[in-house]
Amino acid sequence: MISWTAPNNGGSPITGYTIKIRQNDATTFSIESINCDMSASTATSCTVPVSALRASPFSLDWGTSVHATVIAINAYGGSSESAAGNGAIITTTPGAPTLLTEVVSERTKSTIGLTWTAPIFTGGDVVIDYRVNIAEVGKSYTVAATGVTSTSYTVTGLTAGKTYEFKVEARNSYDYSSSSSILTLLCAFIPDSPTIITTLNVNDKVSVNWNEPVANGSPITAYNILIKKKDLTFEQENAECDGTSSALIAEKTC
User: Fold this and answer.
1) Are 47 and 35 in contact (CB under 8 A)?
2) CA distances from 30 to 20, 23, 76, 139 (A)
3) CA distance 100 to 179
4) Which domains does the chain have, with CATH numbers?
5) With 102 labelled, which of 53, 73, 125, 206 sits at a CA distance of 20 to 30 A?
C-alpha cells in the first residue's frame, strides 16, 4: 500500500492525486494509473498488487524497495512531486526447503534427527525460520516445532516401532513456503541388552539362556553369544551357537 498525508489544498479542493513509482533502473518514475486511478478521489492511499510492480513498466525484482512520489491536483493543476517515500519491499513466499534427510547420529529409540537445505529462492527477503511438521503414517500432520533458526532439528518423544512422516516449511516476512518433500522413517533403534543370563549343564553340553530384551521398534534378527575364556577374555561362540538361527531366537537358549 502507498499512503501519504493530504497537503494544503491552496484554496481549492483537491480533486485527485497522481502516483509515480520508480522503475527497476532506480532512476525513472512512471505513473501508476491502472490500480491507482485517483482522478475522482480524495483518498490518501492506494494498494498496488505485487504482480503489477513486477510487470512493465516498473519491472521490480524480488527484494527491491518500492519508492513512490505523489502529486496533488486541484482545479488549478498539479502540485510539484513529493519527496520519494519508501518502506515496502517486493516479497512473496520463499521456495520450499530441499534435501530433507535424517541425521543418523541423532537417532535413539524415541528421537529422530532431521536436516535440510535452505531454499535458494528466498522470496525477496531473508528466511527467518522453519516449521517442522510430523504425522504418523495415515494420520493428520501436527506441528513438531516452530521458530527453528537452523537447518536441522531433533524430534523427541517418538514411539519405537511407529512410522512417521516429516516435512519442513521456510518462513520469511511474507509467509510460510510450501512444504519440502516428505521424509518417511521408522522410529527404531538397537535393542536393549539381554538380561538374566544363565548357564546350565545338559549332559555333555552347556545351555546358555537369557531373557529376550526390548527390541526398540524393530524385530530382533539374531544374537551373538560370547563365552569367557581361561584368560578371562570373551570370545564369540559360533560353532554350537549360530546366532542367526530362528530357533535360537525363539527359544532364547543355546
Assistant:
1) yes
2) 5, 7, 23, 53
3) 10
4) 2-78 (2.60.40), 98-186 (2.60.40.10), 195-251 (no CATH)
5) 125
Tens digits of residue pLDDT in 89-98: 999 999 999 9
Q: How far apart are CA 40 and CA 16, in angstroms?
A: 6
Which segment of 154-158, 162-166, 231-235 scores lowest on mean pLDDT? 231-235
Strand segments (E) across 8-96: 16-22, 29-31, 45-46, 68-74, 77-78
Cα 75 to Cα 59: distance, rounded to the nearest angstrom: 33
User: pLDDT of 89-142, one tens digit each?
Assistant: 999 999 999 999 999 999 999 999 999 999 999 999 999 999 999 999 999 999
Q: What is the DSSP annotation of 138-200? A: TS--EEEEEEE-SSEEEE-S--TT-EEEEEEEEE-SS-B-PPPPPEEEE---PPPPPEEEEEE
CA–CA dist 161, 110 (Å, integer): 10
Q: Comparing C-alpha atoms, which of 66, 80, 62, 63 is closest to residue 23?
A: 66
Q: How far is the C-alpha of 128 from the C-alpha of 107, rounded, in Å? A: 27
Task: Indicate the pTM of the whole model.
Answer: 0.78
pLDDT digits (tens, 9 = 90+) for 209-226: 888 899 899 898 888 888
